[in-house]
Amino acid sequence: MNFITISEMIGTDGEKIAREVAKITGYPFYGKEELFKAADEMGRLRDVEKVEIKSPSLLEKLFSNQPKIYLDRLQAVIYEVAKKGNALFFGKGSQILLQSFDCALQVLIMGSMEKRLQRIMETSKIGREVAEKMIQTSDHEKRGFIRYAFDKDWLNPELYDLILNTDTLTTDTAVRIIVEAAKAEEVKACGIDAIKSLGKFSLQRKIESALLEAGVASPHLFFTVEDIDSVRLFGSVSSSAEEKEVVKILKGKDIKKIKNDLTILTMR
Question: How far apart are CA 104 and CA 5, in angstroms?
Answer without folding.
Answer: 7
